[in-house]
Amino acid sequence: MPPERREPREAALRHCLQIGVDAIKAGRSPLDVVELVVRELEDNPHFNAGKGSVLTSNGTVEMEACIMDGNTKKCGAVSGISTVKNAISVAKLVMEKTPHIYLGFDGAEAFAREQAFSDGMETVDSSHFITPENIERLKQAKAANRVQIDYTQPIPKAEEETSLPNGDSQIGTVGCVVVDGYGNLAAATSTGGLVNKMVGRIGDTPIIGAGTYANSLCAVSATGKGEAIIRATVARDVAALMEYKGLSLKDAATYVIEECTPERTAGLIAVSATGEVTMPFNTVGMFRACATEDGDSEVAIWHDEPCD
Amino acid sequence: MGGWAIAVHGGAGVDPNLPNERQEEAKQLLTRCLNLGISALRSSLSAIDVVELVVRELESDPLFNSGRGSALTEKGTVEMEASIMDGPGRRCGAVSGVTTVRNPISLARLVMDKSPHSYLAFSGAEEFAKQHGVEMVDNDFFITEDNIGMLKLAKEANSILDSNIRAGILRCSGGEADPNERPPNQRYAPETVGCVVVDSQGRCAAATSTGGLMNKMVGRIGDSPLIGAGTYACDLCGVSCTGEGEAIIRGTLARDVAALMEYKELSLQEAVDYVIKRLDDGKAGLIAVSSKGEVAYGFNSVGMFRGCATEDGFMEVGIWE
């Protein structure tokens, strides 16, 4: 991957990681920290969430997000957001201000508008989210007549070298998982979905247990091919393996990625109540970053880079 | 051991004062659906076909909360959702926000079989349905007099509920009412229908369909279309849940039954009991079958409309404990 495509993303991850670390040190709750970090990732146009979201087959943006609190297992999710800057904040408000867990499409947008004066409910024109790179990606996907799982299909104008193998992601869903010094856990995930997806298509991100999950043992956020992550209930299974089979966080996460999802379809980040971190993936790369209290921190993309 | 098995449900959380007449009607419908499924199994239809067939029947009857007879949104409209899962291969399909498709479960099946995705919602789902020539009707078709009345009661009770909360009579966290204080017609508003089947080849399947919560916000999605929450099927079992959506979602109920069998090696009944026991503050129920031909159910709510049958001739329909 050429530096001009890699560096902005690595820099963004470093920046978001620092925001998260600072917030944890300032005593913010894990729930607040994951929201804060994901908002930052949504605002960054280099990732497939918020601004920079991939486009539906109609050339529009339909974003979805989900947040879960490990202690209470309270959760919030939204799908079909098209004019609110930060879908993750809408998800959090659904969790906090409605008797429901999940709102979609017109109903979600209407709710966000009602909450307009709450923090973080800024609405914008949907063109705000659309970037030239994504218009190009959609064009390519249509030309190839396929739905792209991962979409760093090279854009001829932006780079000379070829490609990464089809279907391999380098800018996927965004997510954040946090454990504080007391073992409190939270997870948050946000995405624009799949390039050229059908209007109304919902992926794994807003489905509790698929793309997002947190309980008193661990917090998990997954990325990759939504359909595969849903079928394998990826996020829940990491926790279930720890709970029902006594596996460690690392073993549970590795098992789910290596045994439960097909090659090139999934990756995840996870933290445990005891402060461990793991970030396995079966795709060629996964943009990721982690930091722990003892001062270790890493930003990485490929497999041979140590990060857990 | 082995052989086919089938279970159906019409919702958990039944009004203990439900008139006998309604109880009888419910039992008759459950019996009819079981028999439909049993004939299909005897004709060697596969599990995935049987669950769809049976849930279509439940959707068509206005008695339970799905298809015709669905609960109404706060705006008095119907928004239905459904999901279906095929154990072998764990293929799945789901829809939400369906307003004009006569049988949401069949649309969910179509998403599974004929689209590159697993879950379609709202106008996207309706568009997909149109493209495939699925039977469409007006939204009015699904609305019943009973439910118009129920919506009115729910709104009246909620406004009482809301003013009690505001007056500090009831505690409330973040705008959410204490679930124990839900007005009676919402406490006992069964929310879903479902069917689980294992066929004579040991293949499991599950299907769930609903109109959702009475007086729900427009756009609200519950547990029924969420794979792992309201519906799940794999090589080992098929599960369909009903009850308080929140409890089912955070408990990933349907997946947990299977995960307990898979990772903790519990039997079907043990897994069902474990999962129900753990529902501390939520009220829910579920039906399940295993690839070995067993059938099981459990609920911690006041009643669950259900029926089950196995190849060896066992058949039971019930509402209460």
Automatic annotation (TrEMBL), chain A:
SUBUNIT field: Heterotetramer of two alpha and two beta chains arranged as a dimer of alpha/beta heterodimers.
Enzyme class: hydrolase
Pfam families assigned to the protein according to its UniProt record, in alphabetical order: Asparaginase_2
Entry-linked SUPFAM superfamilies: N-terminal nucleophile aminohydrolases (Ntn hydrolases)
The keyword Transcription regulation belongs to this UniProt entry's keyword annotation: no
Protein name: beta-aspartyl-peptidase
UniProt KW keywords: Autocatalytic cleavage
The EC number(s) this enzyme carries: 3.4.19.5
CDD domains, per database record: Asparaginase_2
Listed InterPro entries: Ntn_hydrolases_N, Peptidase_T2
Species name: Rehmannia glutinosa
Catalytic activities: Cleavage of a beta-linked Asp residue from the N-terminus of a polypeptide
UniProtKB/TrEMBL annotation, chain B:
Entry-linked SUPFAM superfamilies: N-terminal nucleophile aminohydrolases (Ntn hydrolases)
InterPro entries: Ntn_hydrolases_N, Peptidase_T2
High-level lineage: Eukaryota, Viridiplantae, Streptophyta, Embryophyta, Tracheophyta
UniProt protein name: Isoaspartyl peptidase/L-asparaginase 2
Organism field: Rehmannia glutinosa
Superkingdom of origin organism: Eukaryota
Complexes and interactors: Heterotetramer of two alpha and two beta chains arranged as a dimer of alpha/beta heterodimers.
